[in-house]
């Protein structure tokens, strides 16, 4: 068990507005936020951020914003949206970040549940959503927009530009010059700092209420663990509504005082990452999978010698790269070879990924495939796993330098107590725990044991070194009909290591064997098809091609051979599979906004396909309704082929 956190002294700032004013005083001329606009990086110093936050907060006061009131923020990562959150917190109000890619109707529930009166929106896209649903959100009175492009002819009294808000703040401050300082002084560490809505994998989203003390405590623990300084460079490119991104680029920004960089758009992240060269990096596995896919595609197009050199160097890296990174002893010959590989392959590869300066990289959000994890560490990137959730202010377990393993998420960090219940569930006590689910006392009570431990809902074990291993979501772990373990995430992660597979969903609980749906990675498979002069008319057509089935079948056969090596997991081999006719999509309810599979929804929506997989059919016809980005709906129909995979003879049966 870990002991209570003791990082913050009584003299340290205890709230977000106090931290902001502290940085403005101590490092006022250092960069706090950068934003790339029209190809040029614009910088806000800490002093400039504090000054603008004061003006925004005074603008909110003119609206009559009160302590405890919710202010919604929606858009990509933008300095002004961050400053809007800071301004809300300075008044004791509560920022509620919303997912920018959510359709308008998904936002209605949050606006209603939190009785949101003020929304700060990034651009015309988000403004249009607010105007569309205004009748369903009766409390909504003010929508402030950051980017005015496309909004010149909008005259709705609901709307206000950012510059108009600043002017309003100046006018308010002229009559009440002390109001801002008085409001900041009233904010206490135990007050609510932010509310994040869960992704709603099993029902309606829940508002997770987190205090200043909880969030800042967890940020300071990691600052100490990783020796973070105000010189770190961070790239903020994931949804601000996701607690992971919010912790790394907002809470830790204010706790440590480093610099956060906002890319021009999601499409320019790779280029902007090269510009910045982040030192502290955070990514969910899906982003790391995408990056590796791009590398693999480029190598497929390389010449024969370059391919040969890459393969040779990567075999060496897989053998010794991780050990060198962990400071373990490695033979002189291998060290020399690795150094040569670093010049020829690993260094250029890190540079191509934009990770040359990364000192610490974390992955979280869901389990990462061990092969994917080892790849990044083998080329010299200090990628580590962490474990946590919205309700725990992210940080529960973190891998320590020199003690990194692909199958663990590390030991509990400072302040965390952790136990494994008889059911196998991981249970937690931590200073970072949430206060409650907003207006949901029943769910709040159900989230804790009788003796006060938080139910994580994850199944795990502690190894001999005290490191936590997460097996899967507790509700997803089951048994095959013969009693062997069924842990779908384990085999899905192995499948997603292949660049041709973007998503996989395994089925097998209470069944005789395991089957799977596969989504191909359109970019990777299209590149593969073009090099073979294989014409296709789109995703559905390409996914149905016999050659593509053969390609995916080969990947599945390799995973089966790997899984079969472990007696306890050999039952996870996939017997039959199909390639879905469409990509799983959050807009269709199949994935959460953080791109996690909604298993129950998929099982219901594609029940006819699951039945076909287990009943021995060779194909199954299906029609599926889809939503397009512009709000229209349509239908995709296909006769899906079902193919068997090669299953390695079970070791238990052989022994018998």
Automatic annotation (TrEMBL):
Pfam families, per the entry: AMP-binding
SUPFAM superfamilies: Acetyl-CoA synthetase-like
Chain ranges of the AMP-dependent synthetase/ligase domain: 22-438
Gene Ontology terms: cellular component: membrane
Keyword RNA-binding: no
Keywords per UniProt: ATP-binding, Ligase, Nucleotide-binding
PROSITE patterns: AMP_BINDING
Protein name, per record: Long-chain fatty acid--CoA ligase
Native organism: Advenella kashmirensis W13003
């Amino acid at each position: 068990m870990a002991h209570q956190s003791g990082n913050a002294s009584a003299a340290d700032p205890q709230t977000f507005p106090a931290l902001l004013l502290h940085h403005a005083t101590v490092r006022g001329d250092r960069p706090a936020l950068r934003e790339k606009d029209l190809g040029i990086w614009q910088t806000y110093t800490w002093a400039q951020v504090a000054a603008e936050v004061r003006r925004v907060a005074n603008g909110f006061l003119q609206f009559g914003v009160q302590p405890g009131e919710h202010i919604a923020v929606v858009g990509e990562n933008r300095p002004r949206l961050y400053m809007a959150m800071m301004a809300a917190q300075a008044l004791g109000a509560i920022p509620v970040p919303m997912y920018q890619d959510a359709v308008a109707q998904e936002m209605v529930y949050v606006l209603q549940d939190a009785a949101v009166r003020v929304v700060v929106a990034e651009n015309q896209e988000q403004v249009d959503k607010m105007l569309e649903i205004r009748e369903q959100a009766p409390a909504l009175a003010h929508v402030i927009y950051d980017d005015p492009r496309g909004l010149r002819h909008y005259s709705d009294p609901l709307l206000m530009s950012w510059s108009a808000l600043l002017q309003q703040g100046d006018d308010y401050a002229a009559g009440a010059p002390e109001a801002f300082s008085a409001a900041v002084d009233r904010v206490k560490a135990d007050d609510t700092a932010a509310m994040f809505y869960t992704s709603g994998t099993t029902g309606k989203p829940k508002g997770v209420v987190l205090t200043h003390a909880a969030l800042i405590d967890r940020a300071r623990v990691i600052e100490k663990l990783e020796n973070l300084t105000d010189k770190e460079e961070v790239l903020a490119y994931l949804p601000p509504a996701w607690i992971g991104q919010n912790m790394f680029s907002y809470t830790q920004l204010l706790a440590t005082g480093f610099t956060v960089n906002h890319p021009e758009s999601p499409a320019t992240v790779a280029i902007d990452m090269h510009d910045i060269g982040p030192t502290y990096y955070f990514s969910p596995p899906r982003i790391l999978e995408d990056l590796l896919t791009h590398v693999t595609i480029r190598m497929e197009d390389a010449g024969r010698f370059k391919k040969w050199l890459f393969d040779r160097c990567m075999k060496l890296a897989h053998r010794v790269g991780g050990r060198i990174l962990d400071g373990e002893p490695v033979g002189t010959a291998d060290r020399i070879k690795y150094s040569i590989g670093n010049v020829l392959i690993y260094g250029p590869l890190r540079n191509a990924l934009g990770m040359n300066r990364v000192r610490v990289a974390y992955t979280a959000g869901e389990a990462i495939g061990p092969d994917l994890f080892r790849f990044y560490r083998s080329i010299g990137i200090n990628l580590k796993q962490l474990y946590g959730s919205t309700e725990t202010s992210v940080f529960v377990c973190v891998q320590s330098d020199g003690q990194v393993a692909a199958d663990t998420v590390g030991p509990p960090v400072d302040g965390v107590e952790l136990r494994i219940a008889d059911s196998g569930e991981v249970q937690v006590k931590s200073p970072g725990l949430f206060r409650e689910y907003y207006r949901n006392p029943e769910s709040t009570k159900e989230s804790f044991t009788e003796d006060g431990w938080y139910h994580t809902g994850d199944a795990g074990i502690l190894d001999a070194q005290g490191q936590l291993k997460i097996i899967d979501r507790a509700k997803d772990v089951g048994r095959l009909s013969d009693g062997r373990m069924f842990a779908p995430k384990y085999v899905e992660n192995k499948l997603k290591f292949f660049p041709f597979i973007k998503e996989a969903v395994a089925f097998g609980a209470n069944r005789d064997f395991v089957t799977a749906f596969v989504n191909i990675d359109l970019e990777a498979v299209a590149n593969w098809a073009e090099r073979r002069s294989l014409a296709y008319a789109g995703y559905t057509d390409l996914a149905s091609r016999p050659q593509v089935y053969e390609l995916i079948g080969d990947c599945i056969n390799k995973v089966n051979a790997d899984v079969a090596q472990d007696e306890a997991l050999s039952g996870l081999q996939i017997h039959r599979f199909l390639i879905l006719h469409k990509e799983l999509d959050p807009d269709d309810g199949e994935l959460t906004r953080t791109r996690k599979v909604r298993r129950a929804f998929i099982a219901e929506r594609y029940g006819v396909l699951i039945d076909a997989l287990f009943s021995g059919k060779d194909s199954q016809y299906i029609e599926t309704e889809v939503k397009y980005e512009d709000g229209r709906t349509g239908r995709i129909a296909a006769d899906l082929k079902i193919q068997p995979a090669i299953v390695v003879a079970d070791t238990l049966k052989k022994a018998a």
